[in-house]
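Predict the 3D structure for this chain.
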Amino acid sequence: MPMQNGTLSAITLRRLLQVQVFTIAWMSVEAVVSLAAAWMAGSPTLLAFGGDSAIELISAAVVLWRFRAHEMPEARERRVSRIAGALLFVLVVFVVANSTLSLFGHREPRPSYTGIAVLIVAAIAMPLLAYEKRKLSAQTGSAALRADAAESEFCGYLSLIALVGLAVNAVWHVEWADPVAALAITPLILREGWEAIHEKPCTCVDDDSTEK
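Done. Predicted structure below.
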């Protein structure tokens, strides 16, 4: 069975809470800055990335809530995960619509250097966070933390794809690169949403990875 808060070592629990607090702080900045930049530049790519960041913020908050005071019931954890997954599907609809309008010339995405800066930081930070969360998920047996680690890893992939689209538009002024990058991101977001909706709780813990 998944480990309860009482069976976690103080070191593991403290590290887990630190990682999640940092994740929530960064995802808040990432979502707000990306969505604001998307609005100012008319960028479908930043809309996709910022919307995904906002959903990942929910996931990180769920994990923090679960471990901070008491165990979150698995049924509630799965329900929150499914809601987050459904929101990702809604996000894809908006991104595809926005990208289509841009490709047909109804909107012209402009270069966003603020967006590029956020994407560079995300491309560096998110894989490191994902690595730490995977280690902690093995120690705690938490399905929510395992899913949160996957979402952080996805965020790193998304940031790289988005960065290519924005950089091409900024350097060579190829406006269609932005919506094409956004459309390239949508399959990853759909996969993330599907896995969130169908996530199953972890039923075992790797004894070798638990701290004494």
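The chain is about 80% helix and 0% strand.
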